[in-house]
Amino acid sequence: MASAGVLVASLWTEVNRCGQSGDYTRALKALTKILHENKDDVTALHCKVVCLVQNGSFKEALNVMNTYSKVLGSDVVFEKAYCEYRLNRVESSLKTIESAPEQTDKLKELYGQVLYRLERYTECRSVYTDLIRNSQDEYEEERKTNLAAVVASVSQWENAPAGILDLPESTYELCYNAACALIGQGKLPEAFSKLQQAEEFCRVSLAEDSDVTEEDINSELAVIHSQMAYIMQLQGRADEALQLYNQVIKLKPSDVGLLAVTANNIITINKDQNVFDSKKKVKLTNTEGVEYKLVRKQLQAIEFNKALLAMYTNQADQCRKMSSSLQAQNPGHPLPVLIQVAQLCREKQHGRAIELLQQFSDKHPESASGIKLTMAQLYLAQGHVTKACDVLRSIEEFKHKAGMVSALVTMYSHEEDIDGAIEVFRQAIEHYQSEQPGSAAHLALVREAANFKLKYGRKKEAISDLEQLWKQNTKDVHTLAQLISAYSLVDTDKAKSLSKHLPSADTMALKIDVDELESSHGATYVRKKAAKATGENPPKEQGQGEIKKKRKKKKGKLPKNCDPKATPDPERWLPMRERSYYRGKKKGKKKEQIGKGTQGATGGASSDLDASKTASSPPTSPRPGSGSTTAAGSNVVPPRQQNLPLQEPRGRRHHRRRRRAAKEAGNGTDGRRQNAI
User: Fold this and answer.
1) Angle between helices 402-414 and 418-435 in degrees, nearest 10
2) In the 8-state DSSP scheme, what is residue 622?
3) Using CA atoms, how far apart are residues 51 and 27, in angstroms rounded to an integer?
4) Are 269 and 293 in contact (CB under 8 A)?
5) CA dihedral sign, ordered 149, 154, 158, 163
6) I need a surface site. Which of 81, 229, 345, 582 has the fewest CB within 10 A?
7) Cα Rg for the chain, rounded, in angstroms?
8) In terms of Cα–Cα distance, which of 589, 580, 598 is closest to 677?
9) What is the per-residue pLDDT across 355-399, written as a single tens digit (0 to 9) for each?
10) Which of 97, 88, 102 is nearest to 124 (CA)?
């Protein structure tokens, strides 16, 4: 027994020495020997769990704690919750922490991390605020960094005011988180400046470490550069953003979450262009472990973009499958339905697309505004303007907005439905009369309604609007003039009484120097001033008008061979064929008929070429079935010339001439069959 006790004591000494040196693998070997002597040793089991956690063997450590749960009890609550957190069993980790009998500081630290992963930012913020207030150790800066990250997440993902935090920006992590919070608030220039400050802090702090290489610095700066590119993208500087995104991708950072977000943003810039590059980048969003690095909204956006990419690459079935799956996962989100509708429109199924939109708007009225706008757009694309107007008027959220009223009035005017346009004005004016009476938007609508009614001859209906405007500003002469013009058709007495309010002609006279106005820069059509009197040109007597100089008319030129003394032909204006003395064209001698008969033969030369008429040649009898040969080609019908060349090849024609000459000379045939040409 004494020897066994000495052995255990030496093993504990070995465990202590290895723990101080950080050699946890060797410490595990010594602990295994100790547990071999006493398997229920609580201290040895606890030390074994700690060594396994330090080596990253979280699953094995969790198995040990579950196996000896009765022996260990609540001594390893923190280690169990931490292992579950590192194994991405966040819900289980939360239950373990909440079941702990006592909430220690390290449990609170872990509790804050778990709440952050669960996106429960309000509770997480209160936990870190309490920790910063009630603890003073070397980890205070890390807690402030985590608190700044919580504030930035609230600003970005919940669109809520982050509140004012008096946190120092002494490190690049704090500067980066402050920039993320500014992005959520829409303050992009300030956020970009803050990111530049974070980059400078990062370079300075890492340059102090001699073991850090330039590659390590660039890898650490990748997240800052990616966020800079995102701001550029939001500002419309897509080319600069794309260049910076590609630089981050080339660095191949170890953070799979950073790679996935950067690749997704490149895909959004490419849209329906450069789809092959997008298909390469989308593989980076499927890396293992991405789902644990990004928040729910980021993962959702990536999945939506995958469905859109399938549509852009004409993968219709895959697009429908992915959008249907996304709709099942997010039943109240309008984007999956809009992707399905876009795919249907690409397939020219507009009716089915409108039906799908109508079904979604009926089921989810809280998200129906954007859906109904899309429906109206589809109706307009099909030429159904009235249906589009009905859909737009059913959107309560935008019904009385100035832009919506303008669009509706324009569409009703296009359809020549003036009553419908006036009704839109009436409803909008009544809304502002009850909600914001006398506001600028209210008076602007009243004025536009009055102008519209006057434009389409509804002066009686415009009187009430004009009176309302004039009562708001009795010094508005333009409105008063319109009101008098409208009353002149309805009540002349009222028009006369209102005309008394018009200013007098003297007050309306404009004091303008006409000469100065005409001599000003840019004046056109200015009357010419009279020339000043000089010694050479004395002034004209009063009453003497200026005599305009008449330009001499040039005599017209006569045609050639024209005798001016001769009487012109009275029928010279008539065409030659219609004149009384026209006898038609003189018929000249008949030209020799060139090209008649066989091809290439002429009438004048036929007798010269006829060898039978010469004295030296004996008469020949015609061959049976070959026709007469007295005049070559005289009894042969010429072929039709449609769709054929105008000339035969020279070699064939010359060969045929030689054969004909030989036959007519009485030499018989050349051994070839003689057919009619």
Assistant:
1) 170
2) P
3) 7
4) no
5) negative
6) 582
7) 51
8) 598
9) 999 999 989 888 888 899 999 999 998 889 999 999 999 988 888
10) 97
- Among 478, 474, 416, residue whose Cα is nearest residue 450: 478
CA atoms of 175 and 171, how far apart (whole Å) = 6
Q: What domains, with CATH codes, occur in the chain?
A: 1-102 (1.25.40.10), 168-251 (1.25.40)
Whole-model pTM? 0.67
What DSSP element (H or E) covers 143? helix 140-157
Spatial CB neighbours of 510, under 8 Å, sequence gap ≥ 6: none
Q: Tokens 């009430």 correspond to what residue?
A: 464
Cα–Cα nearest to 191, from 155, 239, 157: 155
What residue type is 585 in one-letter code? K
Task: Among 452-456, 654-658, 668-672, name the most confident range.
Answer: 452-456
**Cα 512 → chain centroid:** 52
Tokens in use for 602? 């002429």
Residue in 215, 216, 302 with CA at minimum distance from that of residue 257: 302
- Name the 3-class secondary structure at 598: coil
- Alpha carbons 97 and 100: distance in angstroms, whole number: 5
Q: State how far the Cα of 292 lies from the Cα of 342, in Å rounded to an integer.
A: 31
Terminal CA-CA length for the chain: 135
What type of residue is 363? Answer: K
Give CA–CA dist 478/475, Å, rounded: 9
Render 336-374 in DSSP notation, one character per residue. HHHHHHHHHHHTT-HHHHHHHHHHHHHH-GGGHHHHHHH
Q: Which two tokens stand for residue 133?
A: 């207030």
Q: Give 170's pLDDT tier (boundaries 50, 70, 90).
A: confident
d(CA 481, CA 82): 81
Give the pair of three-digit tokens for residue 237. Answer: 């500087």
* Spatial CA neighbour of 232 closest among 278, 277, 195: 195
Axis crossing angle, helix 402-414 with helix 440-455, rounded to the nearest 10: 10
Tally the C-alpha atoms within 13 A of residue 138's C-alpha that lie toward its C-beta.
0
Distance from chain centroid for Cα 408: 25
Is residue 24 within 8 A of residue 54, CB to CB? The reply is yes
